[in-house]
Amino acid sequence: MHAPTTVPFRFDPSATPVDASERAARLVDPGFGRVFTDHMALIRWDDAQGWHDAQITARKPLTLDPAAAVLHYAQEIFEGMKAYSLEDGGIGLFRPEMNARRFNDSARRMAMPELPEALFLESIERLVQADRDWIPTMEGGSLYLRPFMIASEVFLGVKPSSEYLYMVIASSVGAYFKGGAPAVSIWVSQGYTRAAPGGTGAAKCGGNYAASLLAQKEAIAQGCDQVVFLDAAERKWVEELGGMNVFFVFDDGSLATPPLSGTILPGITRDSVLTLARDAGLTVREEPYSLDQWRADAQSGRLVEAFACGTAAVVTPIGSVAEPAGRFTIGSGGPGQLTTKLREQLVAIQRGHAADPHQWLRRLD
After folding, report:
1. N6-(pyridoxal phosphate)lysine: which positions carry it (predicted)?
2. 20-56 pLDDT, tens per residue?
3. 20, 37, 41, 211: least surrounded by Cβ within 10 Å?
4. CATH of 9-174, one of 3.60.10.10, 3.30.470.10, 3.40.50.300, 2.160.10.10
5. How far apart are CA 340 and CA 360, in angstroms?
6. 179-350 maps to CATH 3.20.10.10
7. How confident is the model over 330-341, as pLDDT tens digits?
8. 171: part of which helix (H) or strand (E)?
């Protein structure tokens, strides 16, 4: 059946919201992903009714049957996005339409029902309006939004579920890397890969992140902040970090980033960086880049900067890269000029401080 593009929402406010003074205390230094708001959005889907029972309700634990499909077959997807407090008292969402489209791209890959984009956006906006007091006013603070969908049918058998829960939760956050991370160090995973051709690398599903955890643990053991993966076929081409896309900046002012070949997540921050760089007249290439090239270009000085980007960390400089054969430094080992400029441009648009020629900022007033 065709799902309606709109479903009536009901608002069931929390009977026990966090006290204003306690909320203020939590927002002083929220960190990342540990401080949650009072409410959540929830919409149900089943074969008979399609999308229905849309609500903004108190954030609370879920009750799932032990045989719920998501627990056994990992049929689930999610998104990551932010709401920002603007200087004029309004609230901004950054390119939420792209999150809605990517959510449905992931849903198709995971054999899940697509959520109408209008319904996705309405669920986000209603939750943000309900919990707007949870948006931190500290520099760099924002409300991180996590829309997700899980298979909830009670059965044991390998098939797409006939029932799903779509939810959105919100978390007050500060900087992703504690202390601001002037530049991160990267470990090159040799024994593990993130995704293979024909797999789920381009979908935002939990399995991709679960597969990265052991390699990330290995990176920490090697004294590095993050792990970067090579392609599964040749173990030669740089793909992406455990949760971020990667860019390279060369001495001629050009940029390069690995192409979207089905094994890399099409990041919204990645797309925004590409657009800003092209707007500035820079040459940008989406092309394969090997680990050997990375090492040689860093050592020769041809590569002057590298950075990772994603919703949570925005734009983060990469200072050094470690591998079993040794370690090499990129440029000065700290934030580069272009990396810093692109980050500042992007943040200024997200916060409503700069012109928005592409109309990326969706205002909630």
Report:
1. 204
2. 999 999 999 999 999 999 999 999 999 999 999 999 9
3. 20
4. 3.30.470.10
5. 20
6. yes
7. 999 999 999 999
8. strand 163-173
